[in-house]
Write a structure and sequence with these properties.
Layout: E1 3-9, E2 12-17, H1 20-29, H2 35-65, E3 70-76, E4 79-84, H3 91-119, H4 125-135, H5 139-151, H6 156-174, H7 182-192, H8 197-222, H9 225-251, H10 256-259, H11 272-282, E5 286-291, E6 294-300, H12 301-306, H13 313-316, E7 322-324, H14 330-340, E8 344-349, E9 352-358, H15 359-371
Parallel strand pairs: 2-3, 7-8
Antiparallel strand pairs: 1-2, 3-4, 5-6, 8-9
Helix pairs in contact: 1-2, 2-3, 2-6, 3-6, 3-7, 4-5, 5-6, 7-8, 8-9
Length: about 375
C-alpha cells in the first residue's frame, strides 16, 4: 500500500494512505464553504479518524494479548485497517479481536455522554419541560432537537454531538455481518463454534458479498462513492478469505515429516561465498549451521543475499530460528513461519534435528496435495 509512517504505538507502526489528506479536505468542506467552517470541519474529521485509530488499536492490542504479531495500522479514505502477520483459526480469538474495535467506539461514546449532557444542559428538567409544553414535543424529542441544533454550530457542544453519534455509527456500521468487517468476523467465529471452519467461512463470506451488492446498489442510487468503495472492498476481501481457507484445508492434509528436506549442514566459520557456491550447486534454500553436532542456527537464501560474500556464516545466520515438530500439519508450520517472520524452520524431535522446512517447501507441497484425490468413505 502507498502509505506514510507517521508514528507508532506500542511498537505498532501507524501509517496514512497517500489519498488520506485529500479525503480530509473533501470531508471538511461538507460542513460549509466559509474558512471557519472548513477549519472546524477539518478538526472534526481529524478527531473522527483519531477515533478510527483507537478502534484499530483495540483490534491490535487484543491480538497482541493472544501473541499474534501486528504488522501495522493504516488509515484509509474508507476507515482503518490493522494488518496481522498471521491469524490463527481460533473462534475464541477471532471473536475477541473482532469485538474489541466496536467496543472501543462504544466506550468513547459512553465517555462523551456526560460531557454532552453537561454542555447542552440536558439535566435542566425545567427547561426541557417548558419547551416540551410549548412545542408539543416529548422531552426526549426536545433533547434530540437541541443536539441537532448544536451540531450545526461552530461550538464545543457541536463537536461533542458529532463525535458522540459518529462513534455510535462506527460501532454499528462495523458490526454489519459482512466479511471482513468486524460483524462478519463475529458471525464466522460464532458459527465456527458449532460448524466446520470452512462451512462457517463460506456462510459468512457469501452473506457479506450479498450485503456488499446491496451496498453497491445503494451507493449507485445515492451517488455515494464511499459506500461503493466499501462494497468493493467487502466483496473482493471475502473472495480472498475463501481462497485462504481453501489453502488451509489442503495444507491440513499434509504432515511436516512427509515434506521436510534433509538439508546439507554447514560450518559457522565458512565464508558466505562458499555457501553461495554450494547453494547454486545443490539448489538448497536453507542450511542448518552445525558445530560438533550442535545446531547453532539456520542460514537461508534471505540472509545469504543480504550479507556481503566476504562475511562468514556465523555473521549472517539466524539464531532465534523457528522450530516445528514433524507431526505438525503443513498449515501449522506455515502459521509458525509467518507469525515469526522466518523463511525456514528446523524440524526437531526430542532435541534431534530431523530436517528443514521452508515456505517454498510448503508451497510445493500445496500444489502436490491439491492434485491428489481425497479418499472419501461411503
Amino acid at each position: 500500500m502507498w502509505a506514510w509512517r507517521i508514528g507508532s504505538v506500542q511498537g505498532i507502526d501507524i501509517k496514512i494512505h497517500l489519498t488520506f489528506p485529500l479525503v480530509i479536505l473533501w470531508a471538511a468542506t461538507q460542513f460549509g464553504s466559509s474558512p471557519q467552517y472548513v477549519l472546524f470541519g477539518t478538526l472534526l474529521v481529524l478527531l473522527l479518524f483519531g477515533c478510527v485509530l483507537l478502534h484499530e488499536l483495540g483490534h491490535a492490542l487484543v491480538a497482541r494479548y493472544y501473541n499474534l504479531p501486528v504488522e501495522d495500522i493504516t488509515l484509509l479514505p474508507i476507515g482503518g485497517v490493522a494488518r496481522f502477520r498471521v491469524l490463527r483459526d481460533s473462534p475464541k480469538e477471532e471473536l475477541a479481536i473482532a469485538l474489541a474495535g466496536p467496543l472501543v467506539n462504544v466506550a468513547i461514546s459512553v465517555l462523551l455522554f456526560p460531557l454532552l449532557i453537561w454542555g447542552l444542559d440536558l439535566l435542566n428538567r425545567e427547561m426541557l419541560s417548558e419547551v416540551s409544553a410549548r412545542t408539543g414535543r416529548s422531552e426526549f424529542q426536545v433533547a434530540f432537537a437541541l443536539m441537532g441544533s448544536a451540531l450545526r454550530r461552530l461550538s464545543f457542544e457541536g463537536a461533542l454531538v458529532y463525535l458522540f453519534f459518529a462513534n455510535l455509527m462506527l460501532a454499528l456500521f462495523n458490526m454489519i455481518p459482512a466479511m471482513p468487517m468486524d460483524g462478519g468476523r463475529v458471525l464466522r467465529a460464532v458459527l465456527a463454534m458449532a460448524l466446520p471452519y470452512k462451512f462457517a467461512t463460506t456462510i459468512a463470506v457469501r452473506l457479506g458479498q450479498f450485503i456488499a451488492l446491496l451496498m453497491a446498489f445503494w451507493g449507485l442510487q445515492g451517488g455515494n462513492f464511499g459506500l461503493l468503495l466499501v462494497a468493493f472492498f467487502v466483496f473482493v476481501s471475502g473472495g480472498a478469505e475463501i481462497q485462504r481457507v481453501a489453502l488451509r484445508e489442503v495444507l491440513l492434509r499434509g504432515q511436516v515429516r512427509s515434506y521436510m528436506m534433509e538439508g546439507l549442514p554447514i560450518n559457522p566459520y565458512w565464508s558466505l561465498y562458499a555457501v553461495r557456491l554450494l547453494a547454486q550447486q545443490s539448489g538448497q534454500r536453507a542450511f542448518p549451521v552445525l558445530l560438533n553436532g550442535t545446531l547453532l542456527g539456520l542460514l537461508t537464501v534471505r540472509e545469504l543475499h543480504q550479507h556481503p560474500a566476504s562475511e562468514t556464516v556465523q555473521d549472517a545466520m539466524v539464531e532465534d530460528f523457528s522450530i516445528v515438530p514433524p507431526e505438525h500439519t503443513l498449515y501449522d508450520a506455515q502459521v509458525t513461519l509467518q507469525g515469526e517472520n522466518h523463511f525456514a524452520a528446523a524440524v526437531m524431535e526430542d532435541g534431534r534435528l530431523l530436517g528443514l522446512l521452508s515456505l517454498e517447501d510448503i508451497d510445493r507441497a500445496y500444489h502436490s496435495l491439491r492434485r491428489q484425490p481425497q479418499i472419501q468413505w461411503a
